[in-house]
Amino acid sequence: MRGVVLWVSGAALAFFVTAGAFLILANLAKVPSDRSLAPDPSSGRSGPALELSLDEDQLASLRALPGQGLDLVVKNEGDRQLSDVNVTLGVSSENTALSDSRYYRQTVQKLPAGEAATVHFDFDLSAPEQTLARASSAVPEPSRKILEIRATTPGGVSGVRTVVLPP
Predict the structure, then answer these.
(1) Given CB 3.0 to 4.6 Å as the disulfide criterion, which of 66, 78, 80, 96 pairs with 124?
(2) In a shared domain, residues 92 and 134
(3) Mean pLDDT taken over the chain
(4) Using CA atoms, how far apart are residues 156 and 161, in angstroms rounded to an integer?
(5) Percent of the chain, pLDDT > 70?
(6) What is the torsion angle, in degrees rounded to the nearest 10, for the CA atoms of residue 20, residue 21, residue 27 and residue 31?
């Protein structure tokens, strides 16, 4: 019995010492300055940037079938030419239990400053056979497809757009 009382009192003492140490540390923190940490809007963007544009009518016409097509516009909004712009289209299901991700790649060799290039992708939005076999044994609940378009350069310039398509 004496050991239990000693253990409980030791645990309580350790708790109060730790809590007191945290309170002391919290009170030692400096008061935040009145200066705003938001970026200065007059500075604009820092460095080059890639803008990705998609046609909404074309997105609305996409169906869960093979042989779908999508044109997207990649615009260099920086002030220097970009080379080897890798554009990747990732197609996946919102149902993370399914591993049916597909990736399609295109490269824009040169993209001058302020210019845009159109990139065309032919891709498959149908469900893989293994997914259809699993869905037939369970309650079929259509899941939405997620399109992630990513443009990157070897120099680290990038742009990303994500689109969720209806089932």
Answers:
(1) 66
(2) yes
(3) 82
(4) 17
(5) 80
(6) -150
